[in-house]
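fyi for ur records
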Amino acid sequence: MTLQKDPIERLVKAFGTLPGIGEKSALRLTYHLLRSQPEKGLELSAAISDVLNNVRRCQECQTFTTADLCPICQDESRDKSTICVVEQVQDMLAIERSHFYRGLFHVLHGAISPIDGVGPEALTIDSLIKRLEKGQVSELIIATNTDTGGETTALYIARLAAPYVNKVTRLASGLPRGGYLEYVDSATLGAALKFRHDL
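which gave:
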């Protein structure tokens, strides 16, 4: 009986290593696969194998891609004088969905967090500075999160980038569109006041 349980326990443990998946969710996913047609499980296995074997980091911006350069870095119509620095690939995708930005990106794959043992060397900051050293970038937009790690990372990068670019900017933070002041938390309201602009 133990031999039959081992593959199930192994899959439950594997699912449990994914972010946001607890023991109950891992069990639910495992038994869903067991109840499904075998082809579905094999398709999932093949998709995971394909990603692990064929996806790598873009040589320029460090996002995930199947080629040496991602589609954004290959796109000649992009504004090569600006680079937007983000913590994760998901952040880059969110900015792309806004359709407001047409420059290049750089993905850090995290943020500086001494408490978690993550220093600047664990991120892709060195490759960012190498890009800036080429002298083609005039503005660096830092779009890291507004938490402690994101702010620390933003300040660190701004200091390193200053000799190579004309302008280092940070995404404005503040009030959501259509929001009412009485419902806005004090930190967001404070940021809105700090980053106010002329009309």
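Strands lie at 56-57, 64-65, 79-86, 103-107, 139-142, 167-170. thats all i got for now
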